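Need the bound structure for zinc ion, inputs here:
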Amino acid sequence: MELFDSHAHLDIERTTQKQLRALLDRAFEQGLVGIVAIAGATRVGEYELTLQLATDDRRIHAAAGIHPHAASGATIDALDKLMAVLDHERVVALGEIGLDYHYNYSPPAEQRRAFVAQLRMAHKAALPVIVHTRQAEADTAAILADEGVEQVGGVLHCFSSGVELARSALNLGLYISFSGMITFPKADEIRSIAAEVPIERILAETDTPFLSPHPMRGRTNEPSHVKYVVEKLAQIREIDAEEMARVCTANTRQCFRLLEALPQE
Ligand SMILES: [Zn+2]
Ligand SMILES: [Zn+2]
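Answer from helper R.:
Posting the output first, comments after.
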């Protein structure tokens, strides 16, 4: 299968260099043609490891942004540093950014401020955005519309919201990315949305190291597990898994404008 993991964290501190190498080897052996690696989501401003990985291996593409959990750390200096990193030739997206009112690790007002500031940076940098949203559907939809996200494009990652937000995102031209959550027994609502989203707007992701899909649930997640997400999507859409993989990979390349990376036939 031609697989692409549209969202993975390769810079989480508990992974050693050796574990990381083994994880990437397994991914590429499984047929992954690409990974979008999210830099700095757990440590504000620490983008170096992911940028190095993306520089060393062209199959790894980097995204950088200040996560809503860390929004209180979105100081002028932190935003300036991020703006400079967005110029790096291996950075394909600004993210992940957004709102998470489930945990409120940063106060909601600060989350909104950091989200708006970074959406404006996406316009300046001409980069698509990767949006994280949890229990903040109305504010997310309003801010994305107000800030003209349709001009930069992007994706709602690890989709776990209701149908209203899915519709708003689709109307704004965004992609919707599904994670291992769609394999969980209680995820009927997410599966019903995955059945309805236009197929050309669907991406697949792992959100490594979180949310390992069934049958790997309970183990640390890794990019090679994206195949379980794709297989579940194929089952939901009643199409062949190879075809689903091909579509998700093509959509990921469209979303992040990686068309120059298409293999020569
Ligand atoms: Zn997220
Ligand atoms: Zn993430």
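Comments: The beta strands are 3-8, 32-39, 60-64, 91-100, 129-134, 154-156, 175-178, 202-204. The pocket of zinc ion (ligand 2) is lined by residues 7, 9, 38, 41, 96, 207 (CB under 6 Å).
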